[in-house]
């Protein structure tokens, strides 16, 4: 039986309260063959205590050897098999900024770019214009009219925006327009199946008008569209887990995937520190029995290749942790969605350290602190990330017995 | 999504080069309760260094508790779920000696045996006649004509040959003829389904003629047929993994399974030592990005029940290992296809030690050397052998990200 069906059958509407703290890209690698990983190098007295008192292990986000994208990696942590729920980034991005993607709608991620007088791209990100400039350009795009469909456009951040096409007979199986290089022209949208011909045609009409409207917005004088997707229609936390869930995250994508599974999105500030985010968790705590809290900076510093900065972010999270623990949650899960070793400057396939702290129900292991090598010895072993939710619910005493 | 579908979707055509070194039947058992296994008893400074520097674990070839045959165990290492790709030994044997098994063909493994004047088997292997004698007997079998089908016969080794039946409407679901004992007559071929009646009839006609033809070839005066199989039509490494693969193996069966997955078969000598085989890998290395190298003697000495000889083979492999490492592969995987403990004198179900050495991407564990007990502490944990290829490809940076 698929995980979610089993959960739907066994979950109770009462039980303990759960915090799922995700340090994005937490897993790391040593820089030198004998050296520590970022997490091992960080001084983390609070996380070490939780690891000692709780159970630890390593999660496999998608499958062994597979480097996860952020969307599927979070779906896995939420208990949704990402190989089954294969969701386009367009839907995640749109959901992240609060743009509704309904059944039959087609969503896409948009980038402003710069083209020269020959129509060739000179900058795929339009010089990373400030968000305000992006919002101005988006206002021009909102004036575009294409027959028979409604097109919603909304700025995301800097040169990025989201687009949702609404109408009859739309199909998201169309090709992307980003040529993935400069000195190349944006590609036309092409249907990947016959049913998507009309959608491709409508999008090309919109793009042609966009080019005219954006002439005044140099360097944001053209667009590319990627990640076409339709409503993923995901099962909701309320239904599957009988939880009343909330999300505290700064970045749109993470809010998006949380909204798609039914979480309330708590308002955050663009420059929230980990402590700011934990204080927002504390404010929301009385109203929810599950809070997902997402820390982005671990991943960003990993992608920058900055080992020491990633260590510093982990230490900052550790120092702020009492703000969460003071809420007396029944269960605290601390993990990452995937690894982002500074050494590799990108997401990687390596398993991710996890600790589950639940004073009433956990079985201790012999792990001395929170780190990759310690977690290898942990009582949870190595397991698919889709099992994190069942374990958290079990520790929260929110699952009934299977069979008599 | 099945492993191979996911691989087909994510594999890149560029990346590092991989060596998969399989010591057949590598896993072992201690003779005394407190003693070492064969691998633990062997002095293996090179393997120990790779294990220390790399990641280790234990693979489960088929499923927990299942004793693997060599064919399915290798398919698993190549990433093909052996419970899905359930291939008859006849097809493997035929492919191993270069006999093509096409769609609709039926292949079988043949044994010469000795029968007495009453038709009862006195030696199931015809005194293990030398290969030249087997070839002589095969030449007689090639003269047999059965209506409407073409029958190719080719010697394998000693008393063993392979047979392929080609024609319309054939079906491999027929019973074997080896009674698995002496003082018993060979069994007739029986159809296991109605559709296979004609095939059984044709094979029985062929066997009756074979008996006549072989009267002059005592002790090889009769045949038994086993492992009826049709073309398994396996996905190929080139398609699934975008690899250009080669196989260095001495025994036909291993060449056969390698050919079935698309590998080029490098010529070897019947008496190649491990170092000889490694030198053949080195010669082939510039032309390939994946080389599978198979060492048979570990398994043979295990089946002989000769603990010390198996130890000696492992030490010989270790001593020759620099010939492989000098090629500067991006990834080296050393493992077995299954366990063959000398104590048991047969294949066994026990998990198999594995090390993956990939200096740029592996995460160290606390393992001090290559052996069953050390691997139990390894960072890879215990995992299905079908995950070896995804891990190797990931370390070789030949997989793209799953999802955005």
Task: Describe this protein's structure.
The structure is a homodimer of 404-residue chains. Chain A has 404 residues and is an alpha/beta fold. Helices cover 31% and strands 19% of the residues of chain A. The first copy, chain A, has 15 helices and 13 strands. Chain A has an eight-stranded mixed beta sheet, sandwiched between helices. In chain A, strands 3, 4, 5, 6 and 7 form a five-stranded antiparallel beta sheet that branches. In chain A, helix 9 (252-260) links the parallel strand 8 and strand 9. In chain A, helix 5 packs across helix 9 and helix 11 (297-303) runs antiparallel to helix 12 (307-320). The mean pLDDT of chain A is 94. The interface between A and B is medium-sized, with 37 and 29 residues.
| Integer-rounded radius of gyration of chain A | 22 Å
Which regions of chain A contain 5 or more consecutive residues with pLDDT less than 50?
A: none
User: Largest interface, with Cβ-Cβ < 8 Å?
Assistant: A-B, 37 and 29 residues
| Oligomerization status of the protein chains | homodimer
